Amino acid sequence: MLVKMFKDKNMPEQKPQKNIFASNAMSLFLPNDFQSFRDSDFIESLINDFSIRVIVVHGNWHSCEFDHSIIKRLSEIPIPVVAFIEGYCRDESLELCLAADIRIASADASFQLGYVNQGRMPKNGATQRLARIVGRGQAMRLLLSGECIDVSESIRVGLVESIGTLEDVSALVESICKAAPIAARYAKESVNYSQELSFLQSHRLENDLSILLQSTEDREKGLRSYFNKETPDFQSE
Amino acid sequence: MSTFSCIKFTKSEGVAFLTLNRPSKVNAFNVQMRDELSELLAVINDDIEVQGVIISGAGEYGFCGGADLTEFGTAPSMTIARYSKIARDIWKDLHFILKPTLVAIHGHCIGTGIEISALCDFRYATEDTVFRMPELHLGLMPAAGGTQSLTNLVNKANTLRMLYTGEAFSSNQAFEMGLIDGIFSDRGSMMIEVEKKMRQIIAFNSDVLRNLKKSVIHGADFPLYHALRLEQILAAQIDNSK
Fold it and tell me: Rounded to two decimals, what is the model's pTM?
């Protein structure tokens, strides 16, 4: 009961708005909207809400003042997640964007893992996710040197996928919203396991998920639309 | 020499050429093609004359236009569909074949076409090639290893991006991402050059090539300690045979 009261008092009533991007996209603005992530019910509701096709994390990356447990929570969300990084992104903020599926950075973005300079080490995934994204060599370089890299270097090492503006992100989001939502979630799940399982196990997982997808209405609708040369209107069924 | 209808198989001085051969359907991958490829990979694996494999597509439209969707949903049940996919897992055969594999891509390279390519050792394409992974936008998901093999080549983020958006991308983009190893201006010069490359490779000791590939492919599935042991054992086999 006490816990509940505590939560109620600290939880803002308002949930993040859905509508900065496409109507099926949820915008999470750093750090304000991240208050909601403290509420595990909110995550649950997100998992069960198939009207949300994609989550966009953007805003003030310079501030690392958010509850770091949201990094883990964000990584557990089965919905596609895009991060749009502007300005200086360091330490926990950088670890937060590593938990996204796709990273787009503005031309003025820069990245730094300054933990080592402060006699600390990361605890929100940088020693794990970074190496899986940029390879062990570049991960070691960034972690051990504490070097700050600009956006072109971050593209070169594979830390971000492209340079873009909010409009570019909006276009990307719109195109993701047109994918069949259950298929997108399964593809994400399968891709995320790809580096954790052996070839045979990971192929079995992909195979099983693709077979499970045969039970969805959207799959039939997608194929029907393809043959009728129509644009499918997926409903997450 | 072949009695296969969907794949053309020829052999020339140690190199096996597999050509996806349904040109009027942009070489759409169907069950017949799967079964033929399965049979041919087994033949190639056992044929000591074959030292390397080059895969390409017949016709001007492209390497492979993706899976043949007209056959989707023809399995009697999901259980049977699952079983038959496991029983005839040609993606496993292609991945584990211990002879160098190279794919020469042109025109359309869609869905399954990309997935076949991702399971080969070397990938080259003509500059006008158009790549696309449309599955999620058809209510489907990749099922020929796309969610697995692509992440090894182009990382998770690029894989998810091409899957989520389903958008077409060029040879240059594919090259920048690391999806292909080189670009050629036209198909004719590509086929000549890739054969040269393959012949350079198979000129090496075939036992070395086999153990090398075995170490890379199987080692990737082991924890590092065991993978290093595997490498030592495979290298010792080579040293002892001298």
Answer: 0.90
